[in-house]
Amino acid sequence: MDFPDKTDLPYLKKMFTHIFSEETSFVDMMFQNKLSLDNTFIIRADEKIVSMAYTMYFDCKIGDCFGKCVYIYGVGTNENYRGKGYMTKIMSNIYEFYSRKDILFLYLVPAEPSLFKMYEGLGYQTAFHLDKNEIEIKESRNIHLSTGDFHADYLHYIKKFQNVIIRSALDNHLILNECKYLKVNESGFLFCINNKTACIREAYIYDERDLCDFLAYLGSLSIKKAEIIMSGSRPYAMIRPISDDIKLMDFQGSSYTNLNFD
Predict the structure, then answer these.
(1) Which runs of E-coded beta strand occur in 4-149?
(2) Which are the contacts of 207, defined by CB distance < 8 A and separation ≥ 6?
(3) Contact 150, 174 (CB under 8 A)
(4) Rounded to whole angstroms, how far apart are CA atoms 50 and 87?
């Protein structure tokens, strides 16, 4: 296992784009804003990088326990080197690396259902389940809306919960590059619109009437359907505790939306 240096970045970007079929703009944003060479793990073979994984720290509050957790993403191996155990090795190295640090748990979101079983074999347990719910919009009304301060509203709202992974101001700023944030009274809605469908990424709802008004606002934009992801039955994210203070039961019954759960 090794860490890359700056000269490896062009190759890593090319490898990431190829393996995950991501748009160049997203990969550029990730490498510019999120990637740290100290938290990037690689394996070399035949004098080139053949396997990679990226990590990032987040503050979190689990019950009454405050600390840090680590998100693992972008785990991939060059297609010509798969089946040789490189992924297992790099994941084991990540666990060993962070087990020597003050970290509560590792977590990840498998890219496809078939990977859950594989990660279980590496010590990860499914902790979050989701379902996508569709809401048919039948009403159209002009609603008084305001823009609000998304990051400030986010920090205020998550104080209500015991189990939460806390996004940074930079993360919330990057989210606003993709989504729009509007408020109805004190309730806030983070959403994007694609093909006449609104995807509600997050909602801070203080009064259910505000949700009805927000849906009516979407109707005034000729939006016929809204999608919202909530706790459900579909396996979504997995954790591997590092601290003895963290148990899987802490997460049971929690919902997971982006990096927040509870």
Answers:
(1) 40-45, 48-62, 65-77, 105-108, 125-136
(2) 185, 186, 187
(3) no
(4) 10
Report the alpha-carbon distance of residue 92 to residue 99 in Å, rounded.
10
Domains along the sequence of the chain with CATH: 6-128+235-261 (3.40.630.30), 131-231 (3.40.630.30)
H-state helical runs in the chain: 9-20, 24-33, 86-99, 115-120, 150-158, 169-175, 208-220
Contacts 24+ apart (CB under 8 A), 81-84: 81/45, 81/50, 81/51
How far, CA to CA in Å, does 190 sit from each of 26, 165, 174, 199, 260?
20, 18, 13, 9, 14
Contact indicator for 54, 91 with CB cutoff of 8 Å: no
Asked whether the beta carbons of 109 and 127 are under 8 A apart, the reply is: no
* Tens-digit pLDDT profile for residues 202-219: 888 889 999 999 999 999
Is residue 80 a contact partner of residue 67, using CB atoms and an 8 Å limit?
no
Q: Are 127 and 119 in contact (CB under 8 A)?
A: no
Give the tokens for residue 12.
Answer: 């890593």
d(CA 31, CA 52): 14
Q: Could you report the per-residue pLDDT of 192-203, keeping only the tens digit for each? A: 998 889 999 888
Separation CA 133–CA 30 (nearest Å) = 29
User: Would you state the structure tokens that stand for residue 72, as one six-digit string?
Assistant: 């693992």
Unique residue bearing structure tokens 């259902």? 113
Task: Return the half-sphere exposure (C-beta side, CA atoms, 13 A cut-off) of residue 51.
Answer: 18
Mean pLDDT is lowest, of 29-33, 139-143, 144-148, 227-231, for 227-231
If you average pLDDT over residues 104-113, what whole number do you get?
91
